[in-house]
Amino acid sequence: MAEVKFEEALKKLENIVEGLEGGNLSLDEAVKKYEEGMKLARICTKKLEEAERKVEVLVKSEGGKKEKKPFDVSKLEEEASEQGKRRAGEEGKLLF
């Protein structure tokens, strides 16, 4: 498939899903649409992963200056988990 923009791939994927949900396709047509949808889903996933790697978050350093840091989803998940554990300790039950 040629280079497709995320928005275009997503729109095509949505149209395929609508067509498959409609139930008006023959088995052969449905299989072809499903295969095309899987290719589009992989394109969307790849583009989202690329975008995630490019995202930068501005944070304040100790000196009050702003600096760019790479977006780290795993760090955010760890922080959320730690906050949940602290809250759970306060309430006597484990949230995460």
Number of strands: 2
Helix content: 55-70%
Beta fraction of the residues? 5-15%
Helix and strand run: HHEEH
* Largest sheet entry: 2 strands, antiparallel
Our count of helices gives 3
What ranges have pLDDT less than 50 throughout 5 or more consecutive residues? none
Return Rg in Å: 21 Å
Shape: elongated
Side-by-side strand order of the widest sheet? 1-2
Structural class: mainly alpha
Overall number of structural domains: 2
Overall average residue pLDDT: 79
How far is it from the N-terminal to the C-terminal residue, by CA?
Answer: 42 Å
State the gist of this model:
The chain is mostly helical and 96 residues long. The chain has helices at 6-22, 27-54, 73-91, and strands at 56-60, 66-70.
Describe what this molecule looks like in 3D.
By secondary structure, this protein is mainly alpha-helical. The protein folds into two domains: 6-54; 56-91. It has helices at 6-22, 27-54, 73-91; strands spanning 56-60, 66-70. A two-stranded antiparallel ribbon has the order 1-2. β1 (56-60) and β2 (66-70) form a beta hairpin. α1 runs antiparallel to α2 (27-54). The radius of gyration is 21 Å and the shape is elongated. It starts with 5 loop residues before the first helix and ends in a 5-residue tail after the last helix. The model has no long low-confidence stretch (mean pLDDT 79).
